[in-house]
Amino acid sequence: xxxxxxxxxYQEHIRALRDQTLxxxxxxxxxxxxxxxxxxxxxxxxxxxxxxITGKTESRKFFISRERNLWLSLVLLLGCYSAVLLPxxxxxxxxxxxxxxxxxxxxxLLNRSAAVLSQACRRGWCGERLRATxxxxxxxxxxxxxxxxxxxxxxxxxxxxQGSEDRAERALxxxxxxxxxxxxxxxxxxxxxxxxxxxxxxARGLGAHIDKYDIIIRLNNAPVFGFERDAGSxxxxxxxxxxxxxxxxxxxxxxxxxxxxxxxxxxxxxLASVVSKERLDWWSKLxxxxxxxxxxxxxxxxxxxxxxxxxxxTGLALQAYSKQPRQTMxxxxxxxxxxxxxxCDEVSLAGFGYDLAHxxxxxxxxxxxxxxxxxxxxxxxxxxxKLFLRELVTAQVVTDLTGAL
Length: 405
Fold this sequence. Notes:
This is Lactosylceramide alpha-2,3-sialyltransferase. This protein is α/β, with parallel strands linked by helices. It has two domains: 15-62, no CATH class; 103-400, sialyltransferase cstii, chain A (Alpha-Beta Complex). The protein is 40% helix and 8% strand. It has a seven-stranded parallel beta sheet with strand order 5-4-3-2-1-6-7, sandwiched between helices. Residues 1-5, 27-62 and 87-100 have low confidence and may be disordered.
């Protein structure tokens, strides 16, 4: 009887071992099956089946806590903002464009500039050439800087001051001086160079020659710092409107005059606030299309206002070359050339001339914009301006140092 029981227990024990073995084999066989969605073996599922666990514990270990999730989100958000905003504060890589010209051409430009500087200054040269060639007969005799606010203006800004006379009067009262720059006082003959922002100035090495001129005129926020080799380091006159004023204080070093170009009456209020160190109210600031600087590190005697008649006369001069019946709005560069013709005996140009035939050429000497960006603007007719400036060069009224006209 005892032996029968022992035999039965042994058989039941064998069956139990067999069942456990078959169950284990089924589990390991299922381990090789792949999920149809991602193609990976269902390891986690089978291990859970074999171990008899639900997976809730593992899911809790996989997900991080709410506090850690918040900190991780903040770190990722700051990282994304840094990746987007940080490049704007770094120096942009300069685009070098090669149009197939050789070093010999650059030497020709340098020799041309050296020849202008080596000869004696010719007093009254620009005015004489303008009268001799009948180009722009109304240009000689126009004052470069505003001295009278309540003149009989026939146009609103930028061609006049109609409707903004009181604002102009307040701005003029804030300026101790309204005449020519100090560099022209007591000088028998003066040479000017108008430094344009064109990419043709890049890698020409004219900086040392530009610094030798008596009057150096620059436009808007075209930088000097970091570009001294090509653009020079001195600034006698910087023509600009509020939204285009340089933001870096270092760009105002070695600067004699900041000259406001009035495009709207509010620009005069801005100048008065900068000179008097009194900030504009928040309502006035809303009407600028871009945030403007609130202070400039210069003394009140270092500010002037461009006579709007300069822009008007420039537009009239361009109209002779335009096929459109309406008056062409000149660029600040063309207006600066006309202003220089009123101030100086000799005028040279550097960095002028848009070459729209090469869309990949650099538009400006200081940034990576390409020439094809000019095709999208509709305010100025740069083709007409090129004809006007080219005729001034042909008539020997001005000298083109960079040879793009």
